[in-house]
Amino acid sequence: MKFLVQRTTLVFDLFFCLVFVPLIIILGPARYWLTRWTFFFFLVCAYLYLCYFIIKHLDFPKLMIARKYKKIGIAILLFICSNCLLSHFPLPDVEFITPAMTEYQTSVRNQSIELSMWLMFSLVIGYSLTVSFVNALYEQLLLKKQIENQKNKAEMAMFKAQISPHFLFNTLNSLYSLVIGTSQKAEDAFIKFTEILRYTYVTIENESVALKDEVAYIQNYIDLQALRLNRHTTVYWTHDIDDDSVMVPPMILLTFVENAFKYGTSTSRDCSIIINLTLKDGVLAFETQNGVMKHADEFRRDLPVGMENCRARLEALFPDRHTLDISEADNKFKVSLTIQLF
Question: How big is the chain by its Cα radius of gyration, in Å?
Answer without folding.
Answer: 31
